[in-house]
Amino acid sequence: MVIRELLWGSMDYAAAIAMRNELLCLPVGATVFERDLREEKDFFHIAAFDDTGNMIGTLMLRPESETQFHVNQVATLPALRGTGIGHALMTYAEDFARAKGVRILVLDARMYALHFYQSCGYTVYDEEFGRPELRLVPMRKMI
């Protein structure tokens, strides 16, 4: 497995958008294309690839301040969940953020992923929120 940063607007970025849309947005009745994706130009895009070059997971880091990033849209292929891809992506993201001087990562975990993020060292810091089909729990980790 290879994990690397993606360039905004690249073919790999387009593949990451498609993965996020299929795995995260469509299941809750939304689409990633409902918003202006140009706002993502200032985000950091990271993806995992298998040995044949196929994308198997992705996430974004959205800068919120000089010391805090927000982890967004973490997705791995369903058939490969539980194989360590998510943990590897999160570890890469933490190392990447730390190298940029970031000390706090926050995220809004979907209820079904709460235990995954806890296993990565994230803790709940506020009340859950969202709409009925998409409940989220604010979590953070000092890195």
Question: Main attributes?
Answer:
143 residues, alpha+beta, eight-stranded mixed beta sheet, globular
Give structural notes.
This protein is an alpha+beta fold. The chain contains three helices and eight strands, in the order βαβββαβαβββ. Strands 1, 2, 3, 4, 5, 6, 7 and 8 form an eight-stranded mixed β-sheet that branches. Strand 2 and strand 3 (55-63) form a beta hairpin. The protein is globular. The two termini are 24 Å apart. The mean pLDDT is 94.
Task: Give a short synopsis of this structure.
The protein is an alpha+beta fold and 143 residues long. It has helices at 11-25, 85-99, 114-119, and strands at residues 2-6, 44-49, 55-63, 68-76, 104-110, 123-124, 129-131, 134-142. Strands 1, 2, 3, 4, 5, 6, 7 and 8 form an eight-stranded mixed sheet that branches.
Span of the ends, CA to CA: 24 Å
- Based on CA inertia axes, which overall geometry fits? globular
Parts with pLDDT < 50 across at least 5 consecutive residues:
none
The share of residues in helices is: 25-40%
Query: pLDDT average, as an integer?
Result: 94
Summarize the main sheet. Answer: 8 strands, mixed
Rounded to an integer in angstroms, the radius of gyration calculated over CA atoms is 14 Å
Structural class: alpha+beta
Strand content: 25-35%
Q: Helices and strands, in N-to-C order?
A: EHEEEHEHEEE
The counted number of beta strands is 8
Supply the number of helical segments.
3
